[in-house]
Design goal:
alpha/beta; five-stranded mixed β-sheet; three-stranded mixed β-sheet; 8 helices
């Protein structure tokens, strides 16, 4: 039995709710006004991620164009210098010196008029620098709108075809973050919560799972990013051994329930009020359970 990232999130909120959703195959409707609005906000966020990826590719193309033009101009300059040195070394007689003087005067007169090709190349460089600057400014603005920094490079996005599904050969987990970015030569998993206001265990367990799978695959990944709410507040969730052990213990509990152990309900006023399966749960808040602290 392989567990998905969403199952992990459901389990840490309430094992009983996870059991009803997954083991009992309860169908959940997500057509509420809040759910529709959440999908709209998430789609806008993913669209901006896609735009960031395109801006990065355009910026890289401009950068390569600039390098090519500079290299071409350098080759031309070096070639011109070598040509002039060769002509100077060939002067051995008085007649050759007179010819050299005429060549020098001709080259000086020709150098006074800049070739059209050089002007065109310099124009291309100027336009490329202007476009590169505009792309850089636009990329930085969009990055701040989705909760990333100026150095973030979008590698994949959940709403695009280039989805990266993460798996593990050691733990029974599979999942895909909302996007994966590159920062400081590390692959960073990102999840976005449209109406999120604070960090919850369900967010942390998903990011730890993604980090575990990326690290198992040989990638450098010291943290994951949680983007909260429409304000795009960025929160970094660091990976450590304690969180890895927590992930492993959660998976052991889930496997034990699948093998026959009864799940333990964790009802609270807030969780039960927003639970998708509260109508089917005999442990919901206010029914048979004592009052607990809100989640």
């Amino acid at each position: 039995r392989v567990f998905t990232d969403q199952e992990l999130a459901n389990y840490v909120v309430c094992p009983q709710a996870w059991y009803l959703k997954s083991q009992q195959s309860v169908e959940i409707e997500h057509d509420s006004e809040r759910a529709v609005e959440s999908r709209r906000i998430r789609q806008e966020w993913h669209d901006k991620n896609s735009l960031l990826g395109e801006l990065h590719r355009y910026r890289r193309a401009i950068y390569l164009l600039l390098l090519g033009v500079v290299a071409f101009l350098t080759v031309l300059e070096v070639g011109g210098v070598r040509s002039r040195l060769f002509e100077t070394l060939m002067v051995n007689t008085v007649e050759d010196r007179e010819k050299s003087d005429s060549i020098t005067s001709d080259s000086e007169s020709s150098s006074s008029s800049i070739p059209f090709e050089l002007v065109a190349l310099l124009g291309i460089v100027g336009i490329a620098v202007f476009v590169y600057d505009r792309l850089e400014r636009h990329k930085n603005r969009v990055s701040s709108e989705v909760g990333f920094n100026d150095q973030s490079v979008v590698l994949t996005s959940k709403e695009r075809e280039s989805v990266q599904v993460l798996t593990s050969a050691i733990l029974p987990i599979i999942g895909k973050p909302d996007t994966i970015i590159e920062e400081q030569k590390q692959k960073i998993p990102v999840i976005f919560q449209a109406f999120g206001k604070k960090v919850q265990d369900r967010h942390v367990i998903r990011l730890i799972a993604y980090q575990y799978m990326l690290r198992e695959a040989g990638e450098s990944c010291d943290y994951g990013v949680l983007v909260l709410g429409q304000e795009q507040r960025r929160v970094e969730i660091r990976y450590n051994e304690g969180k890895r052990e927590w992930l492993e213990s959660i998976l052991e509990e889930m496997k034990a329930i699948c093998a026959g152990r009864k799940p333990v309900a964790t009802p609270s006023k807030y969780k039960c009020r927003n639970c998708d399966v509260r109508g089917l749960c005999s442990f919901r808040y206010g029914l048979n359970s004592p009052e607990r602290e809100e989640y």
